[in-house]
Every structure is written in C-alpha cells, then in structure tokens.
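Table S2 (continued). Query chain:
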Amino acid sequence: MTIHIEALTFEAIIGLLDFERERPQRVIVDLEATYPYEDTFLDYALIVEKIMAHIKSRRYELLEDALLGIKKELLENYPQITALKLKISKPDIISECSVALSHSWKFNS
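Corresponding output:
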C-alpha cells in the first residue's frame, strides 16, 4: 500500500535569510509512503500532525535538513515504511516561482 499526503500547507520558520528567521512563511509538504499492509496501517492524520510539529519546532535553515528530519521522524514512528518520497516547497520565497526540494528512499523491511 502507498499512502499519499498532498499539499499539506502550513506556516513555519524555515530558511537562511534574515527575514525567513523572523516570521513564518508558507510551507507545502507532499509525501508518498509505501508499507506492507497487514494488521496495522499508517494513520495519515497522525502523520500530518507529526510532520507539522516537527518542522515548526525545528526551525530549519535548509530544506535538505528538513527533509532528512521528516524522514527520520517517520521511520522512528513507522518502521514498517519500505519506501518514502518527500517534497517540501516554499511557494512564496521568490515571487516569480515556487521553490522545492524532493528526495526518494527505499528501505529494507
């Protein structure tokens, strides 16, 4: 099974620039998590809460570190995940475009 969380949108302190450290900006997270469905499942509501709480509490400077932090948080709580794809976007940082970073991982189950 693969759970999809698309366009999870919230505000957080994230970025290197001075003004990014002072006020929250809109962040969008997309996730695909593959896992073997047997007698347990991935609770998407809890995953959403964990992602938002993690990003808001860490106040990351780099999107790269934010992605790795989300990955670590999810694997600690959901070791049954066998593949994970994450994307984090900052749609308002540059007026002409949205910037994003993504990465995919496969894990041994």
